[in-house]
Design goal:
Number of helices: 0
Helix content: under 10%
Largest sheet: 7 strands, mixed
Structural class: mainly beta
Distance between the termini: 40 Å
Number of strands: 11
Length: 122
């Protein structure tokens, strides 16, 4: 099993910055992708950014140029640097990790963190 510990959320003014961290522990082998999703009240959960073990990244169009995802494989930790924050970035941010299954390596099991609140308001 994989456990995900998130930190770094909080209240910030528009234009400000926050850095989210998520450390994976437990059976961390074969975690190929880690990322961040967010969900605002009344909205669907959406992908913010993801990164593979090899460093390939994907960003939502709404955060391109403002957010940067990074990963320290040795520490099993993923980060999300959020700059130029906007009120519409307000949401609960969830860390995720996708682990390849031994029996079917082309499939994955998805793990989730508990979520951390990010509020952008003046």
């Amino acid at each position: 099993q994989v456990q995900l510990e998130e930190s770094g959320g909080g209240l910030v003014q528009p234009g400000g910055s926050l850095r989210l961290s998520c450390k994976a522990s437990g059976s961390v082998f074969s975690i190929h992708t880690m990322g961040w999703y967010r969900q605002a009240p009344g909205k669907e959960r959406e992908l913010v950014a993801s990164i593979t073990s090899g460093g390939s990244t994907i960003y939502a169009n709404t955060v391109k140029g403002r957010f940067t995802i990074s990963r320290d494989n040795a520490k099993n930790t993923v980060y999300l640097q959020m700059n130029s924050l906007k009120p519409e970035d307000t949401a609960i941010y969830y860390c995720n990790a996708d682990q390849s299954l031994i029996a079917t390596p082309w499939t994955s099991r998805r793990y989730w963190g508990q979520g951390t609140q990010v509020t952008v308001s003046s």
